[in-house]
Structures are given as C-alpha cells and as structure tokens.
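Project standup — Tuesday

K.O.: blocked on the structure for the chain from last sprint. Re-posting the sequence here as requested.
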Amino acid sequence: MANLEAQLGVQLWDRSTKIPTLTEEGSVLLTAARRICSDVDAFKRTAEGLVGGLEPSISLAVDVILPTRALVDLCREFAVKFPTVQLRLYADTLSAVSSLVLDGVCQIGVVGPAAQTQGLERQHISTVRLIPVAAKHHPLAQIQGPVATQVLAEYVNIVLSERGGSRPTADQGLLSSNVWRVADLNTKHAFLRAGLGWGNMPEHLVLEDLASGRLVRIRPSAWGEDDWILSLSIVHRPDLAKGPATRWLLERMAELCLRDIGPPQPSSP
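H.V.: unblocked you, prediction finished:
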C-alpha cells in the first residue's frame, strides 16, 4: 500500500485506526480505477468481437407504423446479446425510411408499402391492418352502417405525410378534398381522438381506443367491407455485410412482428 501511495503521491489509507480505511482521496481513486477496469474489459470484448466478425455498430430505420412493443423488445434483447455493438435508431414515415437505407445512412430498414425500394433487397415479414376511425363525439361516429362518400367529403380527413411535404401515399383512397397532413403518427392519433377529423390508423395502435369507445370505427361505402392491409418489409442494400448482429437483428425483427401483428396477409392494391 505504501508503494502505491508513493507512486501516486496521494495518501490512500487512513492508518489512525486499528484497521486502515480508505481516505476520501482513496475512495475517489478506487472509483476511477474500477471505471478504468470496466473500460478495459469492454475494450477487450469489443476487440474480440471484431476479430470474430462482430459489427462495431448497426443503424436501423423503422416506419412509425411498426408496433412500439416489438421495437422496444428488439432493442432490449439486442443490448443484452450484443453489448459491444452500438445501435443507431431512426424513425420516420413512408419513403423517408427507405431513403435512409438507399443513401447509406442506415443499413437496415423496416418499411411499409409506400417506400421506394428499387435497388434494395426486400423481405416481406408481416402486414398492418388500417382501420378508419373517428372520435366518439364526431358526427361521422353517429352514423350506423356505411358512410356515403359525399358525407365523408364534408369532414376533415387527417392523413400521414412525409416531413418534406410529399403527398400522403400511405393513406390511399382519399375521399375528402379537405385534408390535413401531419408528419407523425402520434400527432395524427391525437387529432383523431380530439375529434378534429377522421382517418385511417394501424389497428394495433387503436385497439384500446376502440374497446373503450374513445374512437369509433366508421365504414366508408366506397371501400366496401374490406380493410386496407399494408405490407411490412425489411429492406437493405444488396451489398450489406451480414455479421452476427445483423443476422440476428433481421431474424428477430421478423419474429417480433409475427408475435405482435400476425403473419403476412395479402396486401390491399
């Protein structure tokens, strides 16, 4: 102990008692030493992983229609299984997600059908059912049975649009000329619950609202009895180097989507 104190030039131990105890300076340096040891261990694990082909980092872009539970579980499990791999996560809408992959910002994307995927490899993993809804106090919610197009046209249709101002490609079959465009799904959800208009929402996001009666499903006559079904796919560039973490991420994402929103179904045209 004396040699270490001499090397550091700091008194580490209080010897005024029968059993020496750490001084305040000693406690500070002990904490720093533990942090250094932890960093060295992490450094070694990272180096060992790189030697074994483990990626130093992975960037993932997801469409906001992806169930939050699936994304949270994916990231939690990834952190446990690959603690040395940095995960960068981006969330966006429509073709903006695939653009992040095409531009090389992200290695992997989870996209809906509106994504521009030319030049990318695409794996269809699940489908999302869209439900047309309005708040329980909205006039459209008071109509029993199919709602005529001319009636829908009288009310604001809230649709999802890209941040750049692009047309709302994910909300197909617009039936109103009075359209409000929002750039994220949470805002659209809030507007619908506030009764500001009507619009499509992913079924998994409004199940609780429908069960509680806060939102009511409406039935546009122009759409018949069929729901809008949107495909959900994983995309990546053809030259993606699939290391252990990337392979796990691709497989686990498909499994979690299957768990939370079910198997793929035929998509709407």
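K.O.: great, moving the ticket to review. Confidence is low (pLDDT under 50) at residues 165-171. Residues 17 and 177 are 84 Å apart (CA to CA).
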